[in-house]
Design goal:
The complex is a heterodimer of chains A (107) and B (152).
Chain A: H1 6-39, H2 48-69, H3 74-102
Helix pairs in contact in A: 1-2, 1-3, 2-3
Chain B: H1 15-19, H2 60-86, H3 94-121, H4 127-140, H5 144-151
Helix pairs in contact in B: 2-3, 2-4, 2-5, 3-4
The chains are: A mainly alpha (107), B mainly alpha (152).
């Protein structure tokens, strides 16, 4: 097995942490929102697709960025991970705004 | 190598030049009448290499798509700048606030990053591949917070 350069590992770990925060937010929304809606009498209106996007986007974009960056130099690899991170955060903000837009009046 | 029509040895790519040569001149040690009085390559012409340079096809569609998407991505960046004005975190602790601000910041630069990445990483790709990545980015990065406000 070939030796993995330290720079590569550092980039993986740093971006892994940066992707982890939106993932954490997505998971906490997935756990907290359905009971909150249920408690307010709108349990049927939980926007599951938005909650799933919030959890799936960080994971999928991180994996996709690693996959697209394989075999490339450090700079393009880092650039792709940065693009994925930025896209993840944009998607999360979009999901949050959609959730607000489709949220029914709470009882 | 023989000339396809005359059957004589093909001496050069230029048929006009060939008309002034005799087949076998070189073999007899003769002097090519075309070149005997030339000062060969005394001054390298500035045109040297023009024919040898690879022809770069001016792909208008590719250029047009790249410019069109530059405008679209500029719009996306502006859309996100407007979007972060109307989104906000309700979190009280400093870490969540900082993380939220960071998320807003990278959402603003997402369009520019995606465009530059496609531009720099697909120089040799087919036009369809480049356009596909550009189009995917537009779909992913739509600034929904401001679009939803405008639509409502």
């Amino acid at each position: 097995m070939s030796k993995i350069p330290v720079s590569k590992v550092v980039v993986w770990v740093v971006f892994g942490l940066l992707y982890a925060y939106p993932l954490f937010e997505g998971i906490s929304n997935l756990i907290a929102l359905p009971p909150y809606y249920a408690a307010n009498g709108v349990g049927a209106a939980v926007p599951w697709w938005l909650l799933i996007i919030g959890v799936a986007a960080p994971v999928l974009l991180y994996v996709a960025a690693l996959w697209l960056g394989r075999g490339r130099e450090l700079f393009p690899r880092t650039l792709i991970l940065a693009v994925g991170l930025a896209a993840t955060n944009a998607l999360v903000l979009s999901a949050v705004s959609w959730a607000s837009a489709v949220q029914p009046a709470l009882r | 190598m023989r000339h396809p029509e005359t059957g004589r040895p093909a001496l050069g790519p230029d048929d006009d030049d060939e008309a002034l040569r005799w087949a076998g001149d070189e073999l007899r040690g003769g002097v090519d009448p075309l070149t005997k009085n030339r000062v060969f390559n005394a001054v390298p012409s500035s045109d040297d290499g023009v024919d040898a340079a690879p022809a770069i096809p001016t792909n208008m569609a590719r250029t047009a798509a790249t410019v069109l998407f530059a405008v679209l991505y500029l719009g996306i960046v502006v859309g996100w700048i407007l979007s972060v004005q109307i989104t906000g975190s309700t979190a009280a602790d400093v870490f969540s606030q900082v993380a939220w601000q960071f998320g807003e910041f990278v959402a603003i630069i997402a369009g520019a990053l995606w465009y530059l990445a496609v531009l720099t990483l697909t120089p040799d790709s087919r036009t369809a591949v480049r356009v596909g990545w550009f189009a995917l980015g537009v779909g992913v990065l739509l600034p929904w917070p401001i679009l939803l406000v405008v639509a409502s």
